[in-house]
Amino acid sequence: MLIGKLLITSVCIGFGMFGGIFSPALFIGATAGALLTKFATIIGGTTVGLAIGPGLIICGMAAISSTVVGTPIAGVLIILELTMSYELALAAMLSVVTSALIAHLLFGHSFFDRQLLDRGIDISQGRSHIELMEQSITHLPSKDFLSFSKETQIKDAIKEMTENKVSEAYIVSNQNTFIGKVSLHGLLTQKDTLLVTSSLIDNPIQIKHDASLQQSIEIASEFVGESIPVINLETKEILGVLSEADLFQAYLATQNKITDLEKK
Hints:
With 264 residues, this protein is mostly helical. It has 2 domains: 117 residues, no CATH class; 117 residues, CBS-domain, CATH 3.10.580.10. It has 11 helices and 6 strands. The chain has a 3-stranded mixed β-sheet. Strand 1, helix 8 and strand 2 form a beta-alpha-beta unit. Helix 3 crosses helix 5. The longest helix is centred in the first third of the chain and has 24 residues. The protein starts with a helix and ends with a helix.
């Protein structure tokens, strides 16, 4: 019965069928406690089984249900309120703590916590991390950047970059496809009659267009330069550029928003 209930519950939850998890957890815990009682009876006799049987069943129910739902303290208090026995509450506390520790190391804080982790949401990181992961950067890229075609000569690029007072520029096609990135320092080391494509930066840092603010900040943490291109990886189109200042401002705005929510 224990194996059947565990199997059916797993299948129902896996296929997204209607039903809860608290009642199955209670049943599985009680059945596991009953099995331990049976083993204790076989080893120590009927007297031992009758003495520890109720405690094992109650501890099994408390351990499994509290771990699945993620409420260890509430589980112990419920046992205390229902039985009015400090001995059973203490035994339940030991079983709940052991079960919760093992589950936390191998599975997660609770069943619901595991569901969120499978969706890429880690609530243990705090509200700030969740908000940063949920916030998109689609509204942040700026169109104010200098670009050249791949036929542009280095001398012309240097002149225009100097006039615009920028140290970085982007090479794009007629369809606005991102080809590469050049720096003023790199261009100055090349012959001015060559094309700008001969001085492209190797593997420039990029941010994908659907990245979250948290992901963008992590990428920018390794960046040294003027701006980072935001690229649609499917079409290779450059949608704009982001500076570290843009990310910092968005981060501070998010932090202020969270602070205001916590004060209310």
